[in-house]
Amino acid sequence: IKPATNRKVFPGVITLTNLQLNDSMVYQCEASNEHGSLLANAIVNVLNLAPMMLTPEDQKYIAVEGKIAHLHCKVFGSPSPTVFWLKEDMETALEGQNYFVHKNGTLEIKDVQREDGGFYTCWATNILGNGTTTSMLEVRVATEIVVPPEDLMIQKSAVAQFKCHAEYDSAFENDFELSWKKDGYEIYSDQTENDRIVMDGDIIQILDVSEDDEGMYTCVARTSLDAVTADAKLVVIGEYPLRNNSAVLYMHLLRTLIVRLIADSE
Questions:
Q1: CA–CA gap between residue 37 and residue 30 (Å, rounded)
Q2: pLDDT per residue of the chain (266 residues) written in tens, 0 to 9
Q3: Residue 224: which CATH number?
Q4: How much is the pTM?
Q5: Tally of domains in the chain
Q6: Are residue 20 and residue 85 in the same domain, yes or no?
Q7: Is residue 152 a part of any domain in this protein?
Q8: 3-state SS, one letter per residue, for the chain
Q9: Structural domain for 207, as ranges
């Protein structure tokens, strides 16, 4: 092989850097000893190609406010194209702390806001030409729990009730779910014992409560794109004479406050 600044030959290896069209050729490796020799061929074909857009046109993406959106732009070309993004009628490439273009051409938008919705164009360019593809981003309102459940202190055998009301984007009307957990485990409507636990809309009731019902109850408001939670603690008080209830309530409230203060400090 003729000397070239972009070629380095090591025992058993040839390395080509900064490939040019004239590097296209058949490279032949010869191995020999006193018994003979063997040849092996390797074909290198250096492409010269304008950007080819591999991501289909008019892709639609959906993101939730406050989350991260990814718009894809897969492209092939030689030399490797430079990729940048424009939004609708903008004449300059997107830049700033909320925008980041990955090496594979994907545009990442951080902390998505309503004004980020709209049409985006991916541009890919090299010395041989340009290519573009357009995408649309739809931004939906984030799910929010507006009425969280409140801590309860209930006397044994009474009824405990938690309410959890959430608001969500109307586009999720058929894709919204509100569920409950106890101490991290899902509560299923068809697994309630003797119908003691009743879930109706944004309300859950525990009938004839006992010490076994004590714990942390979590409301989960979920769509296909986001989920939020809110917790409430249930404390069950034993059946004490009426005259002693004030002292018992005070002790339970004090115990609950201490536990919460310790948890918050950790």
A1: 7
A2: 556 788 888 887 888 888 777 777 888 888 888 888 888 888 887 778 899 999 999 999 999 999 999 999 999 998 899 999 999 878 889 988 899 999 999 999 999 999 999 999 999 999 999 999 999 999 999 999 999 999 999 999 999 999 999 999 999 999 999 999 999 999 986 655 567 899 998 999 999 999 999 999 999 999 999 999 999 999 998 765 444 455 555 566 666 666 566 666 66
A3: 2.60.40.10
A4: 0.70
A5: 3
A6: no
A7: yes
A8: CCCCCCEEEECCEEEECCCCHHHCEEEEEEEEECCEEEEEEEEECCCCEEEEECCCCCEEEEEECCCCEEECCCEEEECCCEEEEEECCCCCCCCCCCEEECCCCCEEECCCCHHHCEEEEEEEEECCEEEEEEEEEEEECCCEEEECCCCEEEECCCCEEEECEEECCHHHCCCCEEEEEECCEEECHHHCHHHCEEEECCEEEECCCCHHHCEEEEEEEECCCCEEEEEEEEEEECCCCHHHHHHHHHHHHHHHHHHHHHHHHC
A9: 144-239
- Single-letter code of the amino acid located at 188: Y
106 and 132 both lie in a single domain: yes
Domain stop point among 140, 174, 197 = 140
Residue 34 sits in the same domain as residue 57: no
Q: Are 153 and 235 contained in the same domain?
A: yes
Q: Are 110 and 40 members of one domain? A: no
